[in-house]
Amino acid sequence: MSATVSEQRVTAQRQTRLIAVRRRLIRLLLHMLVAGVGILFLFPWLWLVSTSLKSPEQMIAIPPRLIPDPVMWINYYYGVTYVNFPRYMANTLIVAVSVTLARLVSCTVVAYALSHINWPGKRVLFALVLATMMLPAQVTIIPLFIIYSRLGWVNTFLPLTVPALFGDAFFIFLMRQFFVTIPKDLIDAARIDGASHFGIYLRIVMPLARPALATLAAFSFIWTYNDFMGPLIYLKDRDLWTLSLGMQGFTQRYGAGGTALGAMMAAATLYTLPMILLFLAAQKTFIRGIVTTGLK
Hints:
By secondary structure, the protein is an all-alpha fold. It contains 14 helices and no strands. Helix 9 packs antiparallel against helix 10. The model has no long low-confidence stretch (mean pLDDT 84).
């Protein structure tokens, strides 16, 4: 009997070890798969950085090489000077930061009114807000341009920033879905204590909505930072151009060959850095906001 029991124990231990080894192998394979997909998506950016450090001869070399030799750091000097990078970056940040801050205020106020205040027609208005998301942007380009031109806003940052003060349908929907998940007991307790709607919004709802606010800020900044159509329509003076327009103007002026290509790749690399740094700084809050928004 004792021998049989010991054999069963040995067999059970072997099975446990096999299961553990299988799990580790599966995890290793999954990690390798995720790493491979990540490298696949990261490769275009790595090639961009590599090209920004190559000489014109290395750019057209066959077979192509990922690691430049020698490293041409001077391409970054050309990229910053040819494109007037500091001015365009400043203009882009002014517009992107202004729009992001405006949406953080306007969209959250509207979302709070649609989620925690009972008033007639609330659902109808929310449906109309969602309906505007189905309206193509191309439909409103000409009417908006006529309005802004009569107001004298063309060739200024106002057409790009002021509309953000009136909210955005997508971000209103995003914040409203998150605000609905906040327990009503907290809101009712604050009302019993005598808090106004503004006090509830500022002291209770907004601190609890940090993940969703980070998501709103990240999306809004990235979309505004990369916007090309808006600046193309409303900005005429080169000193007011954003980076998207500056990169396009650089291509039209210098072409895309030789030294100009290295400078353009260097400017494009610098162009992507703020978005990468923003995501790395707020990735945990950003991902948490995407996951939790809309869950009730």
